[in-house]
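Lab meeting tomorrow. Look over both lines:
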Amino acid sequence: MAWQLRQLGLLKRETAALYDPEEHVDRLLNAFIYSDCMCTTLRDAPPHIRWSELDWDTTRPSLVSPASLNIMRLEAEFLDMSTRVDLHDVQTVLQTESRWSTFLKEVQQLHIGEKEFLRHGFLGWALVRVNWLSIMLRAPLIQHPILAASSLSIFARAASQILRVYWDLFLSGNLEPCWIQLQRIVTCAHLAIITCNEGHLHPTEARELLTIAVQMVRAHEPVSDKAVKLSEDLKGAMDALLLSLGIGVLPLDTP
């Protein structure tokens, strides 16, 4: 699809403006970039369209809400930056995280007047996306001489945030099984094991997070024939971790 968007000239503002408004080419571009960013964050490959390639009119109407577009831009900018910038540079890492933190504060304030369920829902969605970016940013730094220790703490916090947001959705019956969620849940569960073993996550919190992760992975059986096996393997890893730490195992129906 990326090459088609290029052929249609949608990456450049002047060319895109030549299309009739009824063709909604801006919506097509927004939708593709949005999905491209989201899927790229789950695989070890560059995005199909780099943010630095784009020259488009962000003021035109879009099916994507302004707040969602902001998250899309954060993801797109990071994915583009990751191919051009040394992400082992301490200053670059800390400045990037500072921008993300500011964004989350803005999201909180932007939706302060919304109904509670809308505000809670969007903030949770933003937390998942930004914390997943934090994991991506810090993943190459696990052996960094300065940032390795803080990276483990950030992994623990990010994994906890993502799993708890998904668990809220699960309890309310709003967690629709899909490949993207399964990837994130399994990855965050692995991070909970690693960070607990390294002393950056309290064992009882790790037990809670892993217990809910096993249940959510199992709930993805309708969309993945590997979900049951993944949940069993995860349960085995959790039991081994807790046994090594002298912590009891919670029943699977315990939140």
Notes: The first helix runs from residue 2 to 7. The CA atoms of residues 117 and 123 lie 10 Å apart.
